[in-house]
What does this fold into?
Amino acid sequence: MNNDSGVMVRKDDREIVGYIRTFQSLESVCDVQESLIRRYCDENAISFGRIFRDVGYSKRRHTDDRWKAKKIGLDTKSRLHTFAAWEDMLLGVIDGEIGCILVDTQARLFDGAEQKQVLERLCVDYDVTIIEVANAFPPDSAAAVGATIYHYPVQFGARTCILLNDIDALYNYASHRKRWEVASLFLDLSPNNREGFAHMLEIAKCDIVLVKNFFHVKRHTSSFVGVVKQLHKKGIRLVSMDEGELNISDKECVDLMKQPLKAAVYDWHKSEYQEETEKLQMEKFQAFVKYKTNGWTIRNIYIDGIRSGTKEELQRLIHNVEKYDIVLLDSFDKFGETIKFTKIMKELNIPVYSLKEGVCINGTENL
It folds into this structure.
């Protein structure tokens, strides 16, 4: 399938069209897709004609429309989802009317192997170009908060509708935030291949990175916090549709160091060696409080061991959190992987400082 994300102007007189697909009737999602297509054309001086829209689908093909399937190359007796506008668009390709298709992501263009194979064949046979308009950052805009969306599907091998429903949910979320505008979309089809994520971080030019949940950023907490710090240095906020915004502030961290705070220390021994070096670990916390802060006092220490297999002390800390102003860790990893870490941060709802990462995170905030 042809995929050219750069500027493309056809030399022939065939039409450049846009394509929109949703599995649910959400006007906001259609609006986001259309705005991405129109903005791409405006920025690159491209004139395009129609926008084909499939809002929902038909579960069974009508007998009178079987000629369309036959001409396109689909199984005329198939009970697969039928997208009327998609078929009309491909008929325009076969009739020599359409030479370029603009879409936010190629995933909109097929649902299942049959549609994908037909589309790939027609693009080759009729020299059709497909441009994904949402994987490049637009110029700065003072009129809106630019939101870049990143996502990868958790259910691999599932139908395209699962991926699109997640993207549409993110579009819908962004469209209902005041002054937000979806600036771009980056996807990876597998967590083992994060080229889209790496590319997004490399060229990030937006106000917000929006994800379904923080687990999609990084699985391991220390790596996740590293990404948060990287985005923070660029002035980019990280927001999760499920968990809200993770608050990290250099200024707030400096201010906290100067205040006489009541601190609770939490540690979790992942190995017998860590249990044996517990005294050195506590001395490290004491030294930090003494030399790096202005009046912090350690009021209590909560330690979970490898032998218990549970985190009873962590739960006791959460239960008694109102007694403290801040929680001190040697690493955010001690709260577990990212999905657990963000849950615990929300339950604590007070600043947590990590010696290893050198940052203070002040819980999460729902938007």
